[in-house]
Amino acid sequence: MVNVPNKAKKKELAKFYAETVSKVVSGVTPEDYIAFTKFLEKTDKPVKITPIHFIVYLTGVTISEARTLYLEKCPLKQLIQKRTH
Q1: Distance from first CA to last CA of the chain, Å, rounded?
Q2: If DSSP codes are grouped into helix, strand and coil, which group holds residue 71?
Q3: Using alpha carbons only, what angle is made at residue 33 by residues 42 and 48, rounded to the nearest 5 degrees?
Q4: CB 13, CB 20: distance < 8 Å
Q5: What pLDDT is recorded for position 15?
Q6: At residue 4, does pLDDT exceed 60?
Q7: On the chain, which terminus has fewer CB atoms closer than 10 Å, C or N?
Q8: What is the tens place of the pLDDT at every residue in 41-52?
Q9: Is the dihedral of CA 66, 60, 30, 13 positive or negative?
Q10: What is the pLDDT of residue 33?
């Protein structure tokens, strides 16, 4: 069995999240996911690590709106823009 370093796992997870939410949010990068996880480490708020919560973090839309946009089966005509942090 091969041991994969945690850093490599985090990079792959970051790539996955960036690809997953890129159908809703424009310009998402793996670094955005890493910033999201660092934000979660510093907060005492009960935030889940899900693509929907990642969209909320990136854009500032409500959880309800992010859920609707993320679960849409058809591509959006225009992607949501990231907010500046």
Answers
A1: 41
A2: helix
A3: 60
A4: no
A5: 92
A6: no
A7: N
A8: 888 887 788 999
A9: negative
A10: 92
Helical axes 63-71 vs 51-59, angle rounded to 10°: 120
Instruction: Dig out the tokens for 41 from the structure.
Output: 């480490």
Could you tell me the pTM of the whole model?
0.81
Q: What is the pLDDT of residues 20-41, one digit of tens each?
A: 999 899 999 999 999 998 988 8
**Rounded distance, CA 43 to CA 24, Å?**
25
DSSP for residue 60: -
pLDDT at 6 over 90: no
Task: Find, among 65, 26, 4, the residue nearest to 18 by Cα.
Answer: 26
Tokens (6 digits) for 63:
């959880």
Tell me the residue length of the chain: 85
Q: Are 80 and 69 spatial neighbours (Cβ–Cβ below 8 Å)?
A: yes
